[in-house]
Specification:
By secondary structure, the protein is of the alpha+beta class. It is built from three helices and nine strands, in the order ββαββββββααβ. It has one domain: Bactericidal permeability-increasing protein, domain 1 (Super Roll). Strands 1, 3, 4, 5, 6, 7 and 8 form a seven-stranded antiparallel β-sheet that branches. The structure holds 2-acetamido-2-deoxy-beta-D-glucopyranose (NAG) (2 copies). One 2-acetamido-2-deoxy-beta-D-glucopyranose (NAG) binds next to strand 6 and strand 7. This is Protein takeout.
Length: 253
Amino acid sequence: MQTLLTALLALVFALAADAAKQLPSSIPLCKVSLPKAEYSTCLNAAVQKAFHVLSIKGIPSVGVFPVEPLRVSEISIAEGGRAVRLQLTLSEAELQGFNSTRLISSSNDISEGGTTLRAEVVIPRLEIISQYEIDGHVLLLPIRGKGDSNITLGNVNVVVKIENDVETRAGEEYFKVKTFKINIKPQKINIEFGNLFDGDPVLGAHMNRFLNENAADVFGELSNSIEEAFAEILSQITKRIFDQVPYKSIFLH
Ligand SMILES: *[C@@H]1O[C@H](CO)[C@@H](O)[C@H](O)[C@H]1NC(C)=O
Ligand SMILES: *[C@@H]1O[C@H](CO)[C@@H](O)[C@H](O)[C@H]1NC(C)=O
């Protein structure tokens, strides 16, 4: 299996000026010199709170809108494997469910000149409502259509790992995202593509049933492309914050 093309998308951000900013005071800050166990407790509370603040209020001071619901103008997934070969574009997508994100664990390894952040969360239910356009083959069957879609994922386990360098700008040190990796494992998948095959009701219903019966396999084939799309979305939000908030205002020294 090989991913031919990867993700393409555009997120809408509010404008933000470029002076050094602070995180909202409702997010606790952790002193990196704390003993390990205390630091870890503090970090877990801070990460859980940060998810909450991001989903409900966003961080207006750095131009980040609330991510609940998250609006993404386009998510494009292309897969060129043997079992699944298709081009899928979701447009005007609305993603709902981030406001129920539960933290499982988090860690932060600080080393000379950088840091590695890792968080594991569960999203109990993630609903992706959008327009779609699809063309290709799924497990040997042709698929083609354009219309409304609803992709709903249940108990989604998400692991995010962000490696950062530190760079200095105007006398302040900032994190610079070096790699952003995400791993997404939904326990349940429900797919509904409206108007498949030019609205043919028999073929459309058959294909939706087929997709849902084989959802785990289909998701498995598409997971690299899906993870790249999500990494792109979430890394844009992360960069937006790290570009403006000096890292010593995120992790106290
Ligand atoms: C989460 O946000 C959705 C809208 O996207 C809302 O309908 C729902 O009530 C919210 N749930 C919680 C737990 O805040
Ligand atoms: C999307 O699909 C889920 C699962 O079938 C369903 O519960 C939900 O109501 C649907 N959402 C919309 C907006 O149709």
